[in-house]
């Protein structure tokens, strides 16, 4: 006869089986969410390695530090790196088409991300910053600042990379709370 006062005694058999099944379901869900997260992360950076190889092969950049994606009317990979003369460059690499028309920007000639963010912070100190990324809209090099303004609107602010002037701004009001 089992001693019901044992430290390992959980209760009737059905409680043990229920706890065991709940444990297995929790582990299975955890594994599934890790798999899902890794899949999403891979799709977000899909094509970065190919873009890196193409830019290095074309000798547009000698070394690449970072690649981001911009989705406008057309999608671009934006590569940060240095050319053979050790000058910092920003290269817009179009994702569509066989013939790639690259646009290269010398980082010494533009307002930096940190300066642009500081300029924005002075104009909108009550806003919640989300991100800043390079953008190419109608062939114009811009910074895309994304933030939530003091009226709780989601804002895309496009500022010129060269002088910081506003090119375009879109504000979206939330319909649901």
TrEMBL record:
Segments forming domain Cell wall elongation regulator TseB-like: 50-94
Q: Which Gene3D superfamilies match?
A: 3.10.450.40
Q: Record keywords: Membrane included?
A: yes
Highest taxon, organism lineage: Bacteria
Q: Name one Pfam family in it.
A: TseB
* Entry's transmembrane regions: 14-35
| Keywords assigned | Membrane, Transmembrane, Transmembrane helix
Q: Which PROSITE patterns match?
A: PROKAR_LIPOPROTEIN
Q: Give yes or no: UniProt keyword Iron-sulfur.
A: no
- The molecule here is called Uncharacterized protein YpmB
Q: Which organism is it from?
A: Virgibacillus chiguensis
